[in-house]
Amino acid sequence: MRWLRRLGLILTLPVLLIAVLALYVGVKWALHSQDDDPVRIASKASYLRMVAQGAVSQSGTERPNVLILFYDDLGYGDFGFTGSRAIKTPNIDALAAAGTVLTNFHSASPVCSPARAALLTGRLPLRAGMPQVVYPSGQAIQLINILGETNTRLPLEEITLADVLKADGYRTGMVGKWHLGDAAPSLPNRMGFDSFFGALHSNDMHPFALWRNDRIEVADPADQDSLDRRYTDEALRFLAAGGADKRPFFLYFAHNFPHEPLHAAPADRGKSAAGLYGDVVERLDRGVGEIVAALKAGGQFDNTIIILTSDNGPWFEGSPGMARGRKGQTFEGGMRVPFLVHWPKSLVGGRSLPDQAMGNDLFPTLLDWLAIPLPVDRKIDGQSLRPLLAGEPQPPRITYYYSGKQLMAVSDGRYKYHDRQPILYTLSNGTWALPFPKGPWLFDLSIDPDESYDIAMLRPADAARLKAALDARRVEDRDNPRGWR
Amino acid sequence: MRWLRRLGLILTLPVLLIAVLALYVGVKWALHSQDDDPVRIASKASYLRMVAQGAVSQSGTERPNVLILFYDDLGYGDFGFTGSRAIKTPNIDALAAAGTVLTNFHSASPVCSPARAALLTGRLPLRAGMPQVVYPSGQAIQLINILGETNTRLPLEEITLADVLKADGYRTGMVGKWHLGDAAPSLPNRMGFDSFFGALHSNDMHPFALWRNDRIEVADPADQDSLDRRYTDEALRFLAAGGADKRPFFLYFAHNFPHEPLHAAPADRGKSAAGLYGDVVERLDRGVGEIVAALKAGGQFDNTIIILTSDNGPWFEGSPGMARGRKGQTFEGGMRVPFLVHWPKSLVGGRSLPDQAMGNDLFPTLLDWLAIPLPVDRKIDGQSLRPLLAGEPQPPRITYYYSGKQLMAVSDGRYKYHDRQPILYTLSNGTWALPFPKGPWLFDLSIDPDESYDIAMLRPADAARLKAALDARRVEDRDNPRGWR
User: Fold this and answer.
1) Which of A54, A417, B170, B426 would be a feasible disulfide site paired with B165, CB 3.0-4.6 Å?
2) Are strands A304-310 and A65-71 parallel, antiparallel or unpaired?
């Protein structure tokens, strides 16, 4: 028995260590809270009632349809109109040529869920309560959200574009990837969409099932070779379903591709000079061609606002368009994304504008076009692009670059100020990877598009001005992270 | 006493763990061996005697001077002639315009020491016995070399360009950064250089002293604000020192800049639109201007071969020229570097060639121009660029991309095959960094310059052909790592 007692003593330290760790995780898990503020949920409801009342008075006017094409991990350089020499996207390029392209458009986040939350709410991810990627419920990887103290689903009090357009009398539909929580009540049908078909998260997460509204229609693992066909057909069906219904439509088509793993139908494979990634993107382009054809056939093309963009820069494949960094990073390659808007009836086409804009601008822009007032109980970070797209000069503005809850950089369009941050240095063979703290850095994007030359000492006034903007925003984030008024 | 015994038992496991670790390191350290092969040292000596005998018979001809300008961590996009919009380098651009530029030139390694070993020996770093960066003697960081089982200095049997040119009757000098070991006998004077002034390693390593031959002339920490001035003056002094001496010269000017930390004299600061990094590079350019002026004044400009390049891609600052990756990586941004050769007397100028070439080609190229036979006791990886630079088409060749001892990728100039390897994914705020194993990947550099689209499945024959070349080289490396014949 003596050796047993000795063994016990020898194991004391490791056992203690594991116990402390388990306790820490347990306490974190137990204390983890999901934002769902009853007061704000009530003010959201009253805002939406107000929108609905306004809609009745407008019911005579011919409101435009709205179609958002949102791709996953698609890089700035992956389209013909953004310079790809390897991928052919004639249908998307045609929309770009006949529409307006913004060349300095950023997603609101370098990763999935936050970018989506910002696009749908008009608020930067921290304010929308969704600063981090959300992981599938009940899986060990969800510890990232628990330990990061972030919501695991979009808080119910957030007002989505679908909520507003639905209240305004739109027929609202979503096809594709939600990724704003896989648990009730934060599911698409509860967040403004009349209909939903798609996945609750990324196509590399499990279980990967396809849902129709609140039920699984295609069980895990859903076949991904046919995913684009299925999604495109669903989108076409949604467009056709209008029929006698005279309401305008809002379709949020948030594709799972070209996020890894890449899949294409056999007939679509081996065609692109850019390999399977190119096959996938070229297939997306053909899907756009089918949708455009359907809109034209239905006489809806002229008065449909088509907006096309991506949620962040490319991951391991895909081109950041000659910029520094990729998905997950606040360098341009992580957040600058392609953007086009096409609306023949009301927007001059054939333009390419260098002005700053961000994914969270779409919410206020659409509300502006539809003459719907913004909610007043919360700060909306996005700015309406209506004046810019109508040909007016855009007043100075600041672009914020967040990584998780942390504000990493700010830019006025020309100068970009990176706060001191860990930059990773690694050898290809993985032998070592040390995050070096670097910065602060000031880059002049006009002559240094790949963020290679720090000019903080050369332009101290610009550095100080942008640092002040960054500091001020951090104070706001600390005092009122969700941006309530 | 009982609590003491208990405490002892509780600490057993950690103490054991530390002891095992210490033992492992100790054994590694004790068993660490430095290559210095007496047989090969002897055959090196006989080769150099043979060169010296050949030199006597040639003493009548007017042999060209050789000047290699080698910069540290300077990126592909950091010069005017390689596309910089932020940095002005008129003197270097003038050499490029009047000389020949190679746009597909790679350093032999994405890091310092191996790149230097390859440049001076004509052999890829593994064969030159220098696959890893070497760290200062006796410091804890040297464990990287010990545990990596690599030499801590260039093996004495290696034949450097300086050895050969000295034997051929050249006056040989080195100014700048050695970084091929900081301990005798592998120091510059023993490795072929009549004179040496500079540092034994990078300017971020300690102690940073400046040596004249085998003595410290400027004690640690040497002032780096005046480093460029000092180096340029030393280079000018070396050029002037010829005087009555009718021998041609070989000057290896291996600058410490623009490697971090960046320093410039007060008069040189605040001038470049690219900040301090730009100030440093523009100052390097002015140094080149001074050297060119001196060569012209001495009537040597026409028959001096000036070669200008870098040891690897840029680190945290500096532009990789719109390529993927940076220093340390086998993506193009880590290894593609600027290159120009200027030799009015014998080379047509005003050319820009897209052909493959590598740092280790300089040794065989110079020997070819000087009609000196290559050593036969060892494999020389580099290929003479004489035919290419004389206007002949270059036969197909393979570029090898090593990281440490590991061959990571091969390219035929158009297609690049990356073997399966860990690619780092990280968020800017450093919250996580997981190396994902990725690949194998085949890139078509002709339409995909930032290595974004894997086409291994689209071009299986090219993938297989290049994989075969990679596998064959790995077998060679395993069976005969140092490439002895």
Assistant:
1) B170
2) parallel
Q: What is the largest CA-CA distance in chain A?
A: 90
pLDDT of A400-441, one tens digit each? 999 999 999 999 999 999 999 877 766 666 666 677 889 999
Model's pTM, two decimal places?
A: 0.96
Residues A279-325: pLDDT tens digits? Answer: 999 999 999 999 999 999 999 999 999 999 999 999 999 999 989 99
Position A22: which residue type? Answer: A
What are the pLDDT digits (tens) for B446-460? Answer: 999 999 999 999 999
The interface predicted TM-score (ipTM) is 0.95
Q: Residue A66: count other Cβ atoms within 10 Å of its Cβ.
A: 23
pLDDT at B57: 65
CA distance A348 to A343: 8
pLDDT band at A1 (very low <50, low <70, confident <90, very high): confident
* Cβ atoms within 10 Å, residue B421: 21
Whether A32 is a known active-site residue: answer no
pLDDT tens digits, one per residue of B422-476: 777 666 666 666 778 899 999 999 999 999 999 999 999 999 999 999 999 999 9
Coil, helix or strand at residue A465: helix
A452·B319 Cβ contact <8 A? yes
Whether the CA torsion A146, A148, A154, A158 is positive or negative: it is positive
Of A404, A432, A444, the CB nearest to B273: A444
* CB proximity A176 to B under 8 Å: no
A112 among known catalytic residues: yes
- Identify the CA nearest to B483 among candidates B215, B9, B92, B127: B127
- Give the distance, in angstroms, between the CA of residue B242 and the centroid of all CA atoms in the same chain: 27
Residue type at A354? Answer: P
A-B contacts (CB, under 8 Å): 208
Of A427, A435, A452, the CB nearest to B430: A435
State how far residue A441 is from chain B, nearest Cα, in angstroms.
10
Cα B149 to Cα B131, B133, B145, distances in angstroms: 10, 12, 6
Give A 55-84 residues with CB within 8 A of chain B: 75, 77-78
**Can you tell me the distance from the alpha carbon of B264 to that of A445, in angstroms, rounded to the nearest whole number?**
24
